[in-house]
Every structure is written in structure tokens, then in C-alpha cells.
Amino acid sequence: MKDILSIPFNNRILHCGPINSKNAVLEQIKGVRYSLDEFLGPKSDCTLYQCVIYLAPGDYHRFHSPVEWSPTVRRHFPGRLLSVRPNIAGRLPGLYTINERVVYLGEWDHGLMSFAAVGAFGVGNIHVNIDPTLITNKKEDNALQKGDELGCFRLGSTVVLVFEAPTNKLKWCVKPGQRVKLV
């Protein structure tokens, strides 16, 4: 399972690990949780993992594909634009379900892949290269290679990855709180 998933943008990891399959709850930050159903839509029955990635205002704000995959569905959730700074996220349960977000769902070699761009205070729009209008799902081939630029934020925000991977074979090379830089 070496190097199957990368996080090719400047960020700080807030949380990474398996999703509790019994109650389908995602970890927001340090014990603050929110419902997978509220965040992505209908529940999946597969083994899922998550990685919550914070982009600070001074970080590189283009986000890239973490794997080779094909997004097939886009869900746009209009919402607020509250700050996603870790000290705020740690006190406001459900923050990522309150804020505007765009979620792309598709398939990669190991099953489901979901990439969610969550808006934040000062981030009035989220630009996604494969879907510049964000009006309807595109029928054309939107296959992405690992590292392809997917889109950008105007200021700091959050990316949430939810994905299926082989059970007990996923090894995290990052820890919560760790800074990751694009080189």
C-alpha cells in the first residue's frame, strides 16, 4: 500500500483515520464530530477512512488530486462561510456541515473516493477545474491523475477526503497537527 494516496498541497492535517462504521461519524477536530450522512449524503456500507486537511490563509490555495480517480457525481451544499480555523472548528460541532461545500464522489482502485472542498470565511467561491460552472454534473470524462490540479480557494479553507481502502493495510505517514508542504 505504499504511496497510494498523496496530499499535494500546503496544509495542516487535522485528523486522519478510519470512520466509525457503527454510527457513520466523521472526526472534525479533537473529538468534535459530525454525521457522514449530513456531510456527503446517503451512507455507504463499505470500510471508509478520512483525512481532514486545513489550508491556512498563508498556504498555497490550489488543491490537487490525491489519487488517480474518476469523479462521477458532484454535490453542492450551499451554506454559511464561517471560519474553519482549528480553534473555531474545535468548538463548533458540525462546522463542515454548516459551511458551503462541494463534494465530488467517484471511484479509484480501491473503491469509493470523495473529495470535499469546504468554504470558509473570506472564501466566497470554490473554483473546480473539471466543473467550472458548478451548475450540473458533466457527462464528459473527468478522469484525474494523482497530482492533477483539481481547483483552488481564494483564502484558507478545508479539504475533507473520505475513501475506501483495503482493511488493515492502510498506514498513515502523517499525524494530526503535522504541517505538509508542497515541494
TrEMBL record:
<keyword id="KW-0594">Phospholipid biosynthesis</keyword>
<comment type="pathway">
    <text>Phospholipid metabolism; phosphatidylethanolamine biosynthesis.</text>
</comment>
<protein>
    <recommendedName>
        <fullName>phosphatidylserine decarboxylase</fullName>
        <ecNumber>4.1.1.65</ecNumber>
    </recommendedName>
</protein>
<comment type="function">
    <text>Catalyzes the formation of phosphatidylethanolamine (PtdEtn) from phosphatidylserine (PtdSer). Plays a central role in phospholipid metabolism and in the interorganelle trafficking of phosphatidylserine. May be involved in lipid droplet biogenesis at the endoplasmic reticulum membrane.</text>
</comment>
<dbReference type="Pfam" id="PF02666">
    <property type="entry name" value="PS_Dcarbxylase"/>
</dbReference>
<dbReference type="GO" id="GO:0005739">
    <property type="term" value="C:mitochondrion"/>
</dbReference>
<keyword id="KW-0210">Decarboxylase</keyword>
<dbReference type="GO" id="GO:0006646">
    <property type="term" value="P:phosphatidylethanolamine biosynthetic process"/>
</dbReference>
<dbReference type="GO" id="GO:0004609">
    <property type="term" value="F:phosphatidylserine decarboxylase activity"/>
</dbReference>
<keyword id="KW-0444">Lipid biosynthesis</keyword>
<dbReference type="InterPro" id="IPR003817">
    <property type="entry name" value="PS_Dcarbxylase"/>
</dbReference>
<comment type="pathway">
    <text>Lipid metabolism.</text>
</comment>
<keyword id="KW-0670">Pyruvate</keyword>
<keyword id="KW-1208">Phospholipid metabolism</keyword>
<keyword id="KW-0456">Lyase</keyword>
<keyword id="KW-0443">Lipid metabolism</keyword>
<dbReference type="InterPro" id="IPR033177">
    <property type="entry name" value="PSD-B"/>
</dbReference>
